[in-house]
Each structure stands twice: as C-alpha cells, then as structure tokens.
Amino acid sequence: MANIEHLHVVKASAEVVYEALTTGEGLSAIWTNELTVSQVIGDTLTFQFGADDLTQMRLIELVPHRRIVWECTASDPEWVGTTILIELEEKKSGKTWVTLAQQNWREVTPFFRLCNYNWAIFLHSLQLYVEQGTGMNYQSRV
Fold first, then answer.
1. Which of 55, 31, 48 is nearest to 118 (CA)?
2. Nearest to 17 by CA among 57, 66, 60
3. Model confidence pLDDT, tens digit, residues 86-136
4. Is residue 142 part of a domain?
C-alpha cells in the first residue's frame, strides 16, 4: 500500500481551517463548487469536477478543529477504498499545521503521482482561502 502525505502551514486558527474543510462554503471555494456536503458521520459527500468526474466520500470521523476523515466510495477506481485524513494542529504562533494524507493506494502509478500534485494544489487553495478569503477551486483553474 502507498500513501500520499503533505504538511502545510497556514496563518489561521484551527477553527477557521476546520470550518473551511467541513462546510459547503469553504469546500466550494477550495475544491469544487459542485458539491453536496454534510457534517453527519456516515453521510455521503459528493464532489463533481466537470461532467464526467464524480467523487463520493463517506464521512468517517469529525473531531472539531482537529481531525477529518473521509473514505472514498465512488470515483476513479484507483481512489475507491482510499481514506483521506486531515489533521489540524494549531501552534502558539497563530498558525495551523495541516497534515493531509490519502492512504491505502494499491500501488504507485502515474495517477497516484498526479493526485499527489493536486493535493498540494488543494492545500495551497486552502491557504489562499483562510488567509485571503478566496480559494482556487477546480472551476477557477479550468
């Protein structure tokens, strides 16, 4: 099994970052504006990236201001069964360390490498959103 892992530091409280990552307003600014989200454990979250690219995640865990876990249930076959883990650690400096991991890939493939890059873009978009108020979602990049 292979994992994608990133650590990114943003100048915002863990509360602000958590809100951005768990609400429709935040995720639509950061990732895609075609989505359905919930904060109910077990619910399915949907993220659309153009007409032919739908990703569905089951919400596995929410620990306010600390941890978010999604399990991919529908998407590209390489994504299905992977887990997206986001952990937040607020530092005394007023910054939050954001650790993002996509775990349980079956193997390292070209698509794995592409997704690794795109998770870095996701974290940069998160940073722009929490620090400047405007993210860089899918629709603004295509």
1. 31
2. 66
3. 999 999 888 999 999 999 999 999 999 999 999 999 999 999 999 999 999
4. no
